[in-house]
Amino acid sequence: MSLQNRMKNALLEKEKEGSLRQLTVSQNKIDFVSNDYLGLARSAALHQNIEEHYHQLPFSKNGSTGSRLLAGNSALAEEVESYLAKIFKAKQAVIFNSGYAANQAALSCIPQKGDTILYDELVHACMHDGMKLSRAECKSFKHNNLQDLEDQLRETDGKKFIAIESIYSMDGNQAPLTEIVNLAERFDASIILDEAHSTGAYGKNGAGLAVSLGLESKIDARIYTFGKAMGVHGACIAGSSTLANYLVNFARPFIFSTALSPHSLVSIQCAFGFLQNQLYLQESLQQNIQFFLQNYQQNNLPNKIESQSAIQSVLINGNKQVMALAEQLQQNGMDCRGIRFPSIKKGSERIRICLHAYNTETEIKKLINTMKIF
Description:
Elements: H1 3-16, E1 30-31, H2 44-54, H3 68-72, H4 75-87, E2 92-96, H5 99-109, E3 116-120, H6 125-134, E4 137-141, H7 146-155, E5 160-165, H8 177-186, E6 189-194, H9 209-212, E7 221-225, E8 235-239, H10 241-250, H11 252-255, H12 262-276, H13 280-298, E9 311-315, H14 319-331, E10 334-335, E11 337-339, E12 350-354, H15 361-372
Parallel strand pairs: 1-10, 3-4, 3-5, 5-6, 6-7
Antiparallel strand pairs: 2-8, 7-8, 9-12, 11-12
Helix pairs in contact: 2-12, 4-12, 5-6, 7-8, 13-15
């Protein structure tokens, strides 16, 4: 069979099972899909601030010109890393091109052959890809199940790692971080924490969940993503100076990738500076979350996964059924997408709703009323 025919057959199979993915462009619809939780990606004021700071740079480069270990390092990159380390209350931070790359780097190079990674069954695909490259033994524990995690820690010998997210990207619920830290201390395990969906939305100056709980010093590696609530791009891993030096020497996504451009670095710095003066956006987001939850409950709508975050998921069994509801929402002017198998487990298909600081109460009521008549 030719390669072209093999690819066509694979696509036809996905179409039959109702899981064929296609790119779409959303126009003039109410945003209930993006990760722009605080509205920074659409902020004209932040955009202007970034451009002003970029044009003040004492040099003119469109790109970084290479990897950080070759031509791509700069005083600006090191300045932004120092700035981020202060925000995240870490000794040092190392910038990566994306949250995906940062998670892949952490999981692939920190755990070693002979170690064991215990990971929450709902961690993101990038953590899975990193674990595959680590050569460590990998075992899942039931989602947010402290007893299952404790049982596995007790049964595991050698160096142990716990891989978790602070806010889970599909269910939207929060990790019991304090309790997991206590277990890690009891069993001498190290924690690798993905703060992708808490960066910006939680904590002083957007420092995330661990800092907001005062647990930052008890977590070995924290991954922060800037393409969600911070509205820009890139990521970093924060932790000790030893960790930073280790990543520079062993993290392949850092060593072999062209570094972020000066414009991206300025954007990261400006986004956090901007948020420090706009922290009411966090409060606005929380108010909208509570308004949604109250109205959802008042309308007796079923099958919603328990969540107090901006991510609210409503279970709709079957790919075709979930896409039918997504289409109805689209036709009523709301950008809200269905998540299908095999992106998630069969039987857990859902409408994934993302709430934002800029959504109005009228928009949220319209969303709930449309779902009510489905």
